[in-house]
What does this fold into?
Amino acid sequence: MTPSTMRAVVYDQPREFTVKEVPLRDPEPGEVRLKVVQGGVCGTDLHLHEGGFITSYPLTPGHENVGTVEALGDGVDSFRVGELVAVNPNTTCGKCPACRSGDRLYCPSFGGWGTLKPGGFADYLIVPEEQVFSAEGLDPDVAVFAEPAACAVHGIEILQPRPGTTALVFGTGPTGLLLAQLLASSGAAHVTVASIAEPQLRRAEELGLDSAYLMVRGRLDDDIAELAKRGDGGFDYVIDATGVAQVQERTVELARSGGTVLLYGVAHEDDRIAISPYEVFRRELTIRGSFAEIDTVPAALAALRSGRIRTDGLITHRFGLDDYGAAMDAVRSDDSAHKVVMTP
Ligand SMILES: [Zn+2]
Ligand SMILES: [Zn+2]
It folds into this structure.
């Protein structure tokens, strides 16, 4: 018997959340109700906590979920009860010019479960069938990376890396390391990751990335100088996976002439950085953004299944729903934390 209420993390306004009983409804036609196995907490959830990114209230966050199918709405025939599935939390309006020309990521109504609609930091999650992907046979500790891995796949779609190139990735958070691994398997001859978090760098080495560079808080100039030396004329791809404006500002000078800078980490909306337009012009640099994901979950699950993207050792912390505040603290400021997951 399914209960008529469930527990969920609920924000009524920025920075103010409670964990409480909320009504649990049946799935409507075309919908799937999942019993949440676990869900990843990520930097975006910290932005949501502050009222940033794409939000409306009341909000239940949680956009990186894996669960088991618990009930099927009328007409749902691609899943069976008990099946392990991952969720693509993102959706668009389907009607605007961007959606109708296949550029769904640019939809002004982009959003979804865990941002605009109730997400998975709850006992149950209800989503339309088309947002659900079978993760049968995958360990839930691997499948929980489906959404961040989909963001990494999209980053690769944006970069279209050429064989034999070099890449520098700032930031060794989970999504940064997923992207770095895909760069390596997409033909980059050498991938360097740079971060202030030593345990994460060690994990990057365990995952097979070529070089790990430990940055020191407050010594950015020295670190940039050292990385420039290692880049030996610049990296073909310089990727920011930190979302930290001071770091993003230094990406351009580390790119090889003709190279590409990718802004992949989530910055604050009011951040501004200073770069030299002359340098971009003279050295024919490309600056690109990579925003979220919309149709790359199947590719992500395939890469997770084959081991092309490895996640072993990435989950370091697990919290119950009641400890959502502690989970966010871990993501925010615990250098020993890597992937933090919520387990209802
Ligand atoms: Zn995320
Ligand atoms: Zn649209």
In short: The mean pLDDT is 96. Residues 152-289 form a domain with the Rossmann fold fold (CATH 3.40.50.720). The chain is about 25% helix and 30% strand.
